[in-house]
Amino acid sequence: MIDLPEEFVSRMREELGDGADEFFASYSRPPYKGVRVNTLKTDVQSFKELKLFDLQPVPWESNGFYVDDEKPGKNVFHAAGLYYVQEPSAMCAAPLLEVKGGERVLDLCSAPGGKGTQMAQAMRGEGIIFLNEINFSRAKILSRNVERLGITNAVVTCAEPRRLAEIFESYFDKILVDAPCSGEGMFRKQPEAIAEWSVQNVHSCAERQSKILDSAAHMLAGGGSLVYSTCTFSREEDEEQVRRFLSEHPEFTLVSERRIFPHTEKGEGHYAALMKKSGDERRDMRILKPRADKKAVAAAHDFFLKKLKFIPKNIHAVGNTFYSLPDGMPDIPVQTLRAGICLGEAVGGRFEPDHALAMCLSPATADCVEVDETAALRYLSGETFVCDDALSGWNVVTFKGFPLGWCKCVNGIAKNHLPKGIRI
Fold first, then answer.
1. What angle do CA 302, 305, 308 make, to 5 degrees?
2. 222-266: per-residue pLDDT in tens?
3. Which residue numbers are catalytic?
4. 31 CA to centre of own chain
């Protein structure tokens, strides 16, 4: 049994009554672990056939599974982006929005990306999804997860919600606010959260959440849906927060809400509420016109024609770096870490492909070199490996047909071009 704050214990006993003993007994049991299959790269049945884990379905997410593995993120298939390690209860919020391809979607407090990438899977590369994180270092982690999963229609931004609200008036069809909270629902999984907890912190979180929700309300189009979620048990941050929001924004109605407790469900603490906005106002924004230096584009096209079996769409350059922008990408004055696919960089008249491009490819769309597990692990640790003498230049390293990154083949040796920051 972990040592819980006295004020927290007292409050939960009063709230849960006869169920309190069972609730506190759950803290003596280990937390549940989960993974979500990335259906942009595989399907659930094919994933099951890999036999990586003993999979038990998560009831509120069709692609989610409970696993017993202590470190489910430590294998080649995780590096290839076939799945995302996600706490099971955290999978309950995103499905409430019923996101579809072609929509404009915002995950306002997105890092590390579990819920945002969950919605991106449902979009199948169609439409545009903004994943925002106010903390730059966390935004970089978010961007890496988007890259690993091979998501092509995401824009990763780093901005305060109120700044985004100044730009995106009535723009989004669906918005998820997984708000920063006091983290009470994670005490069992992350005991360090206990040290940060206090009654004052609960109040501070509630104030911050109110401001974030107000910004979200301004950005949602009429007829759109908003999900508010937290990983806390505090009613001040959950039900009372939603009631305040509804009283101050009468254009919204509550559709449903759900609380998950560790003694009644197989997961940590979580809360999610679905709200609907009335009206039909939906504003468009000026689209960013793709532009790039003609000579640099020529070098990039030469690479695409030789190594890829298609030409990327909406090619746009920022300096010497090329991106394939999502359809309908708006021209926005916001710090942006990623917009669509980072294709690569023009260097001295030649084109060097980016890791993000590799993670979107397959043997059907690019020149690839298939490796066994031993060579894959060597590659992921940054080493070179032996390849066919007939191979030359840039090739995508694949394991079981799934991309891991780029190598450059010269005289039977595949030189490693995996970014140092993601090597094992």
1. 125
2. 999 999 999 999 999 999 999 999 999 999 999 999 999 999 999
3. 231
4. 22
Pick 349 or 397 by higher pLDDT.
397
Q: 388 and 399 in contact (C-beta within 8 Å)?
A: no
339: phi then psi, degrees, rounded to nearest 5? -135, 105
187-204 pLDDT, tens digit per residue, is: 999 999 999 999 999 999
Phi-psi category of residue 226: left, alpha or beta, with phi > 0 → left and psi -120 to 50 → alpha = beta
What token pair was written down for 330? 């708006």
The tokens for 66 are 């409970």
Please provide the distance, in angstroms rounded to a whole number, between the alpha carbons at the two ends of the chain.
34
